[in-house]
Amino acid sequence: MTLSLNFPVLETERLTLRGPEAADFEPFASFYEDARSGGFGGPLSRDKAWRSFATNIGHWALHGYGLWTVVDTASGQPCGVCGLWNPEGWPEPEIAWAIYEAFEGKGIAYEAALRVREHAYTTLGWTTVTSNIIPGNARSVALAERMGATFERAYENPAMGTDHLYRHPSAKEVRA
């Protein structure tokens, strides 16, 4: 039996956000080899990175949303993941992002996260969303704040320990 999922495709001026494909595992595993993956629970061994990759596909099957593979449309290269994440133990759904090292500093996370938030608000009908950021991840905090998110509270994330919850502007505020 084959599980068939219809991943929505989101586009921006430079990016295509599409569902995960088998070939996306190699850059995903490489990301998890590095300490920079700490905000996503890494570093992880290759076998644990595979489990994380497969968990995302299961998340899509269970929730109807998950992490898209962010692709540079011009080159076709996967440059990270960004999407909506709400596994067991999370206080509520969040916008999450991780950009691979070669693509950092180009505004890709910002562009992808804005498009994901728009999808959550317009297509899924959500009225609010958060981003959960581990303490000390200054780059993710800066991105969340650039998107208008503000620190709401610390909480104990079952997978990550102490986490900081940043609240994004509501759907109504974004449309205003």
UniProtKB/TrEMBL annotation:
SUPFAM superfamilies, sorted: Acyl-CoA N-acyltransferases (Nat) (SSF55729)
Domain N-acetyltransferase: 15-172
Single GO molecular function: acyltransferase activity, transferring groups other than amino-acyl groups
PROSITE patterns (UniProt xref): GNAT (PS51186)
Segments passing through the bilayer: none
Signal peptide span: none
InterPro entries: Acyl_CoA_acyltransferase, GNAT_dom, N-acetyltransferase
PANTHER family, sorted: GNAT FAMILY, PUTATIVE (AFU_ORTHOLOGUE AFUA_3G00765)-RELATED-RELATED (PTHR43792), N-ACETYLTRANSFERASE DOMAIN-CONTAINING PROTEIN (PTHR43792:SF1)
Name used for this protein in its record: N-acetyltransferase domain-containing protein
Lineage, broadest ranks: Bacteria, Pseudomonadati, Pseudomonadota, Alphaproteobacteria, Rhodobacterales
